[in-house]
Amino acid sequence: MKGTLFLISAPSGAGKTTIVNAVLEHVKNHYGDKLVLEKVITYTTRPKREGEVEEKDYFFITKEDFLEKIESGFFMEWSTWYENYYGSPAWVLDRVREGISYIAIVDRFGARSIKAIFPEVVLIWLAPVSLEVLEQRLIRRGTDLQQEIEKRLLKAALEMDEEKKEKIYEYHIINDDFNKTVQKVINCIVVEIMEK
User: Fold this and answer.
1) Among 34, 95, 159, 186, which is least packed by CB within 10 angstroms?
2) Which letter does DSSP use for residue 170 in this model?
3) What are the structural domains, with CATH classification, of the chain?
């Protein structure tokens, strides 16, 4: 039996990493061997933030190493954001075909790229209540300068507008309540994996 690949996308600061980590923890604790879901660890050239763990949050590599991996076809998708590179390894697709389910955090561009080469992927769009709420989250996070926050908000507005005009995600979830949002993502996963 084939696994399922889930892609979750959201504007920067919308809570996608925290949601995905909570979903993985819940699935592990409540489903055991009945539902196994692993996280795709993305490669990035950006500096490690405080509290991030190598090989758990990201693989932190140099720009030169990243460019070599692009050249060798290592990534199923990659993109740049604010002079940093991000990419998801292509071997994940082989593991999905072997029966293992994965969840990856990618941007809209990455989701579109993966859908083109792996049409059976399940896309989940996680949106903030509003751009104002998103701005407050980014400010509270305290990792970006005001100029960077403005760039992130501009990109978020564009992504949200693009998804309204051309829906590419099967599931749309508003992150207005953390626990409810986690449960909604879990429900999507359970439906897609266990009710096939």
Assistant:
1) 34
2) S
3) 5-194 (3.40.50.300)
